[in-house]
Amino acid sequence: MTDEVTITREKLIPLALLEASGRDLQGKTRLQKLAFLLDEEELGDQFDAYSFRKYDYGPFSKQLLEDIESLERKGIVDIQESRTLGGNKRYDYELTAMGENVIEELLQMGDVEEVFEAAQRVVAEYGEMSLRELIEHVYDAYPEYEENSVYQY
Question: Which positions ≥6 away from 93 have C-beta within 8 Å?
Answer without folding.
Answer: 14, 18, 24, 25, 26, 31, 68, 77, 78, 79, 80
